[in-house]
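Observation: inputs received (chain + zinc ion).
Thought: call the complex predictor directly.
Action: predict_structure
Action Input:
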Amino acid sequence: MICRKCGTEVTFNEAGLYKKLVNRGATDCLCINCLSEEFRIPVETLYKMIEEYKKAGCTLFA
Ligand SMILES: [Zn+2]
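Observation:
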C-alpha cells in the first residue's frame, strides 16, 4: 500500500495501525509519519501501539 498523503510505501503493520485507528475497512492508508501528524501522536507511541496489538494477537499485524 502507498500513503495517500506523501506517497511513501506503507508496511503491513503501519497499514494495520491505520485501519485500527481510522476504519477497519479502509482501502487507502497513511504511513506512520503522516498518521503521527494527522492524530498528533508521536511516532514512537505509534510503534509501541503496533507492538501492543501484535502481542494481543490482532490479525491486522504480523
Ligand atoms: Zn505519508
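Thought: report the result.
Final Answer: The CA atoms of residues 20 and 60 lie 8 Å apart. The first helix runs from residue 12 to 21.
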